[in-house]
Amino acid sequence: MKRYDLIVIGAGPAGLSAAIQGANSGMNVAVFDENAKPGGQLFKQIHKFFGSKEHQAKTRGFRIGQKLLADAEKAGVEVFLNSVVMGLYENKEIMVMQQDKVFHYKGDTILVATGARENMIPFEGWTLPGVMGAGAAQTMMNLHGVQPGSRVLMVGSGNVGLVVSYQLLQAGVQVAAIVDAAPRVGGYGVHASKLTRTGIPFYLSHTVVKAEGTDHVTGAVIAQVDEKFRPIPGTEKHFDVDTVCMAVGLSPMSQLLQMSGCETTDKGGTVPVVNSCGETTLSGIFAAGDVAGIEEASSAMITGRLAGAAAANKLGFLSDEDFVEVSAQMKNSLRQLHEGTFSPQNKGRTDLTLTDEGIALSDSLFKYGYLSDGEIGRYPGVTEKKVGIHPVIECTQNIPCNPCQDACRFGCITIGKSITNLPIVNGEAKCVGCGMCVASCSGQAIFLVDDDYGDGQATVTMPYEFLPYPEAGAKGVALGRDGKAVCEAEVVSCRVSPAMDHTALLTIKVPKEMSMKARFFSQEVTK
Fold this sequence. Notes:
- The chain is of the alpha/beta class.
- Helix content is 22%, strand content 27%.
- Strands 1, 2, 3, 4, 5, 6 and 19 form a seven-stranded mixed β-sheet that branches. Strands 20-23-24-27-26-25-28 form a seven-stranded antiparallel β-sheet.
């Protein structure tokens, strides 16, 4: 039986972060994962992360995964793939299936980072091929280069449903609609907004009631729900789709921790009871990432590092003094992600009406997935009347993110002490139109507006992440925040730079009076 100072179960963001922290502290570390490739969810995440520079904001998830793998190799972490951990016992021994044989390993400390699984809801036809979890669709697209279907109905408006819907569009798949039984959008408003301006409708207070077809999905039916989430007869709507994606939450995969005998509790699924450093009620057994509570990957990496440091301290590889310093730094970093509109203490709340700054939240954003023209002017990132080119930041919720401030070298954008503060456009600073703020915004919520283009025309520069890129001179229509055509438009330029990491800056020319309305460009005929 081989022995390690630290055994990590799960090679996702939390597990790899813990392994790197432990190995860099001098521990002999092994990581076991049932998959053929390490990295967990990170390599499916092609979008840019939120947070601050220390949280690797504006970096795409798969690039973070690449860095973690490189750091793990450099630190000397042993990674065992295609290794199914079948048992975890109180004495910190694990039983692993490898190449059809069972092996036993002993850890002086154990960290469980097994992540979470997708939830499903039953409805007529839900077992048909073509009904799948949003994460499965994401795996097909981003890991295997396969379209999950040609026309998709997305069920769920949380961040997973919103992010995967956008990635479906990027993969050339049509998204017929986004459906959610809740009466309001569940994920970040900026994620919803970048979908609605492409023309995708939201059906809130609706649920899927039927997937049509015999041997595969050929259509889907949704219906409005009452206050008890029961479908209302006579409100059915039909969609011609070949795929139904379910993004209806995640459940922690805590079976190994339950097997170990540690104390558990129910927090949106069975999770272990852990202290502030991730240690369970069994000494030397830790948990980090989604298995200890569903959060974003940024939080998972921090909790993984914190648990890895705690394990190193427990065995004497990290001094008490160093551990206090390291843990304080990581807890502060985690605290920043736990503030604002989507903080753990606000989870599930529907009574929030004001931002942290006391500004009224957008009713239209909650109900329809976009900001109304009448609401947009109330936010500090929006400056409508300014001579010359200037940024317009349509960020209206207290989300932990500040790369726009770091991207501007000229002081046009400020965030404040907390990364969850709403961005403010400084009207006194001179914008040079470089567009780095547009490219750095993880929520694609920043636009450059120039009302002085001449001949009664204005230009709007927007983030664009669809191939092929429109060419200069191409003509089409500008779409508003609600996805409806507002005017004719012509492409002035489409700038691409390695520094922008595949976020092109698309500049279109529109009538001057439409500069604060045009937010997307389409060469297709719209309704």
